[in-house]
Amino acid sequence: MLSEQDNRTVSRVGPGTPMGELMRRFWIPALLSSEVGAPDGAPVRQRILGEDLLAFRDTQGRVGVVDAYCAHRLAPLYWGRNEDCGIRCVYHGWKYDVTGQCVDMPNEPESSSFKDKVRIAAYPTREKGGVVWIYMGPRELQPELPRLECAEVPDSHRVLRSWLHESNWLQGLEGEIDTSHVSFLHRYFDREQVSTGFNQQFMQEDSRPRLTVHETPYGFVYGSRRTAGDAYYWRLTQWLIPFYALIPGTPPNTGRAWVPVDDEHTKVIQFRFRSDRPLDSQDLLVNSPERGRRRDTRTERCVYRLPDGTPIDVDRPIVNRDNDFQVSRDMQRLHSFSGIPGSAADEDRAMTIGMRPIVNRSREHLGTTDIAIIAARRRLLRLVRDLERGQEPEAARDADGYAVRALEVTEREPDFDTLLPTVREAMAVGGGPQPSAR
Fold first, then answer.
1. Domains in the chain and their CATH numbers?
2. What is the pLDDT of residues 35-86, one digit of tens each?
């Protein structure tokens, strides 16, 4: 459990908040390149870390992420004309380039230099791995992009998704680094219904995993051990500061970034990829369609209105809180532990969104299988307090530190500290082949 004050600290992400300032030291995967579309196309409304922003691709193909409102009278730039290397407000014609500089004021005298003195907030952007990254921190501290494996492989080796998660960012992330729930929430009663992404046999037969956390400069790797006959099934999950989780499983590899929209909403960026070859139809297989079990979350593009009425352009899961996540009591009785159709991520969302927008962690009762969650919270609080004392997060400046993988292996070794050196090469991007969970 956390104190109410510490819970506010890890949950609040707006400008000037301790956690918000920490996150602004890192490059943020803000949206998919495909969301921005073609040059001079429609702009995209976003909220990131509590700031209302507008993304657009200019005539030259450059992506700008700027303040959502015109500096003149604060009219929404979303209605603007994306043309001739800038976004032009349709209210009075003021125009801004991707750096936020006002480059035209057609309602002012031609001799006026007023436009040179006006600019709107704009953040540095990079495009890599099919993602638009933005940096929202101090310019003099801008680091290199993190060397995540998913962003290094060719486009044909990778598929990206994004969707809105309707709760605080940390609730979603904590679900990713909680291995114990897999034995229950994602359980199917029929063996043929088992998801191909997990080694469900071992996780269903041993629902009491033993966890060990090993802290690293980039976050931590933790091992969860389950009995697998005369050996042990190990899942090695990676948490990368501040909001990434790499999930063990058979290829394609999977990871997610839990990017705060604001305190009560999150944008999930999901990546599935292979390093050894392009993805094929089997890698993207839809599982058990007759029972509704899918590998991936189904979404629809929509205009989502936040509680204050601000619209954002997002992909929202079809299975959501408005339809009670389509829970079926017949399915729960006959086929699955949860009764929620769709993907494992749909089941996860029902749990973490159902905790309310910001869970009151002071009421929790955490056990031995929650040590990874406890470790992540403590690390985040430590990083926040270090930053308040003027110590910048080292992980933000260590791009190569993010070049790691999650693993699942079956070995006779019962001790995580002894196992870890034997698989360290396989966990490193560019290292040895990934061992399998035989």
1. 27-141 (2.102.10.10), 149-427 (3.90.380.10)
2. 999 999 999 999 999 999 999 999 999 999 999 999 999 999 999 999 999 9
